[in-house]
Amino acid sequence: MSPNYLLKRLLMIVYTLFIVSLVVFAITQVLPADAAVMMLGENATDQALEALRQQMGLNDPVWLQYLHWLGGILHGDFGQSLRTGQPVGPAMFQALGRSLLLAVLSIALMLVLAIPLGVLAAIRRGKVADMVVSLISYAGVSLPEFVTATLAVLFVADWAKLLPPTGYVPLTENFLDGLAHLALPVCVVSIILIAHVSRMVRSELVDVLHTDYIRAARLKGLSTSRVLFGHALRNALLPTITVVALDVGYLLGGIIVVEEIFALPGIGRQLIVAIQTRDLPAIQAGVLLMAATYSIVNFAADILYAWLDKRIQYD
């Protein structure tokens, strides 16, 4: 992978985030919310409101407000929350860390289950195992997160009382209790990921197993396991990387629903609260951080793709 390509991709990320910042700032400007009224309350005098608007630069032209806001972000200042009066940045980064923990655990569970299921379905094509995996995949894709999350809370937490229904405990405070609170959200988020990836692995592996180089490997006397895991699976997983990277977009959207249902204080739940309270700086910071996360994950997927397949050359 050439340095020029890496530079181009990094510049593309910067360009994407710049466009996102423009769109987010423009949308929040047309929302029916007055930052001065949100901070001082509806009973504030006109003089106090006007003085605060002047202090916050709300009377400046929109383009100047955007430049001030963007300049603050470049210096790590995401503004002040209209709801709490505290800086938005630290709270949003802390919430993003919780969401990333949920996402990483969900992807790890997905990889542990989806790849073996896809391999099993491929080598047992047309048999009972293949049909069972297909049924699991179709069910996973068909059920939206709010349905699976509600059923999980109802049956696993309330009825069977196996796991806590809601809440969050930092792993640094109590590791086992923290995992117990994350177990249901992780399972719910990973269901659709498992469905997508297992079907992709199955489809790609079936195609790879019928290629000439796999036949040649078998004719050389290589064992079935070595042919499968040493040659076929590695190439079959290449398109899966793209699917996982694209699923990060779903993951970010799905996490918002899951965090709200399970009362998990991640960036999705913070964003919902910000929208409900019309906390404009928090909305701007949350959307921008989610866009940055998606861009970085896709960049990492490109690098991993080229690392796994040396034939791929990015210029």
Keywords:
single chain, 315 residues, MetI-like fold, 2 domains, mainly alpha
CATH class category of the largest domain:
Mainly Alpha
Main sheet record: none
Number of DSSP helices?
13
Based on the coordinates given, report the CATH architecture of the largest domain.
Answer: Orthogonal Bundle
What fraction of residues sit in β-strands?
under 5%
Q: Would you identify the CATH H-level superfamily of the largest domain?
A: MetI-like
Broad shape? globular
Rg over C-alpha atoms, rounded to the nearest angstrom: 24 Å
- Which range best describes the helical content: under 10%, 10-25%, 25-40%, 40-55%, 55-70% or over 70%? over 70%
Q: Which fold name is given in CATH as the topology of the largest domain?
A: MetI-like fold
How many strands appear in the DSSP assignment? 0
| Uncertain residue ranges | none
Coarse structural class: mainly alpha
- What do the pLDDT scores average to? 81
Oligomer class: single chain
Total domain modules: 2
- Straight-line N-to-C gap: 7 Å
In N-to-C order, the SSE pattern is HHHHHHHHHHHHH
Keywords: Cell membrane, Membrane, Transmembrane, Transmembrane helix, Transport
Family: Belongs to the binding-protein-dependent transport system permease family.
Main location: membrane
Domain ABC transmembrane type-1: 96-301
